[in-house]
Amino acid sequence: MPARSNRAARKTTKPAANKAVANKHALKGLGKLPEWDLTALYAGIDDPAVKRDLDRAERYSIAFEEDFKGKLAAFVDNPEAGKKLSEAVKRYEQLDDLLGRLASYAGLVHAQNTVDPVRGKFYGDVQERLTGASTHLLFFTLELNRLDDAKLEAAMADPELGHYRPWLEDIRKDKPYQLEDRIEQLFHEKSMTAYSAWNRLFDESIARLRFKVGTKSLAIEPTLNLLQDSREEKRKAAAQAMAVTFKENIRQFTHITNTLAKDKEISDRWRGFADVADSRHLSNRVEPEVVDALVTAVRAAYPAISHRYYALKARWFGKKRLAHWDRNAPLPKVVTRTITWTEAQSTVLTAYGAFSTDMAEIAEKFFKNNWIDAPVRPGKAPGAFSHPTVPSAHPYVLLNYQGKPRDVMTLAHELGHGVHQVLAAPNGPLMAPTPLTLAETASVFGEMLTFRKLLAGITERKARKAMLAAKVEDMINTVVRQIAFYTFEHKLHTERRKGELTTERINELWMDVQRESLGPAIDLRPGYETFWAYIPHFVHSPFYVYAYAFGDCLVNSLYSVYEHSNQGFAERYLQMLAAGGTKIYSELLAPFGLDARDPAFWQGGLGVIERLIDELERLE
Questions:
Q1: In angstroms, rounded to a whole number, what is the distance separating the alpha carbons of residues 440 and 337?
Q2: For residue 101, is it within any domain?
Q3: pTM for the predicted model, two decimal places
Q4: 323 phi and psi, to 5 degrees?
Q5: Is residue 100 one of the residues assigned to a domain?
Q6: Mean pLDDT, the chain, as a whole number?
Q7: DSSP for 274-304?
Q8: Is residue 122 part of a domain?
Q9: Environment class of residue 570 by beta-carbon count within 10 Å: exposed (0-12), middle (13-18) or buried (19+)?
Q10: Confidence of residue 192 (pLDDT cuts 50, 70, 90)
Q11: Could you read off the pLDDT of 412-447 as tens digits, one per residue?
Q12: Is 340 inside any structural domain?
């Protein structure tokens, strides 16, 4: 199977400065919001360098195949095995960077406006060319995995090949699941008309949806933002508008979901994965039993965390139960103000700087060099992400910034990814990428630093209560909600193996896990049953979601170590990030005295959330 990479998982935009958009956001009190400068990759979609590099990618890939296909077994029998293999790996790495640069640029351009047909055609054409070029590279990791273990080990005594030991050992974990070369090629080429095509259809469909809230017709991001509005009538109107629009379009999303689940089942069956989530565990380089322990611990903690917190929140609102549109509502009688972009930037950089000046300096580059695209725009990809692009360039962060406190935490989260990606880049294209579980650790740690810094400066009871509540809700959304998402996916994919699922059955599965995770204090009103339809992770990265809970619990444990003994902690933490994909999670956690295979590890992380709820109850 192809070597894993998290580079193409997400994407984003092209940026000519849009003064009208900037002025519009300035009028909303946000200040001027930054847009990307993608010239580190290419000058524009018409840049001759794009065509030049696409042609080079095809030409160099064909030459690579001609030079090395069918020859690796002979290399390891040669006295200069290490030298010959290292030459091949270096050329493969250079090609990975070239193809990754093109893929990243096309994805970023598309994400800034997914409904623009010009961008859509550019994105599709580049994907098609890259799929064709990379077909010539498929043989390489397959042949490497067929080499005799002892002979490859002997070859790695050569320092140049030994440098790539982490990558070589990593891809060999895929060995039991790889198929015959021609089948791998078929899977690869058909990806353009299989899951990649359905992913694109989902993105464009979501971007085109409009939700009628009062007299306004809104895209999904502004509508979701209203669920955090201080006015209940606005939250209710937004939720009901979502219910109406999703219901009108639900058959399409049901079809997309069924098709992608079947596509995954076919791949899993051919490769020999027993459980529906096993391929994700392999990609994350985490043992299934570790994930099972995490899921079991979180589900057992639902009553002590989410059920307890939402019952507390309902009391604050003077109700026995909260309607689902009130789940993320700001606390009553607490003034919520708009946070300008300048203030958000200062908040995050100050928090990062208090932990590590090196970390803050890296994060500051994102602001100074226009590596962030922040405004909400029609057609723009929803949510937020940090795209690593390639080590020869730098990451880019996408936000939909609207001045909410949660938006500041999202900025801290994505910059955590960005710092991690910058630090890991020197490992090169093959060894910079990290499994999702470790990638989310860096982002959640960035959030925790920002939260703790802000909380330390607040003594007034109402303000402290509001900040603690916001953090608990974020942690519930990161841990409880994501494990509920994982449980939903697991049920859905398991049932899909028996046949196609109706909309009604998917709705039932969704409601079952939501009731279990949110508890009796949340009233799931009619219309909520279709809210699974807009979750992009279900489409783009099946079973991705548990990585958030993994990262949050891991960060809670890491931060506990930091609080008890911070001497030298920042240096060890940055070294952990700089390792990129050269070490597995157990090796990275060892310097901190942590072991994720210990069930007590997860209990400790969940205990942090419980203690925050304890403090909230004391503040009542």
A1: 29
A2: yes
A3: 0.83
A4: -65, 155
A5: yes
A6: 91
A7: SSTTHHHHHHHT--HHHHHHHHHHHHHHTII
A8: yes
A9: middle
A10: confident
A11: 999 999 999 999 999 999 999 998 888 888 998 999
A12: no
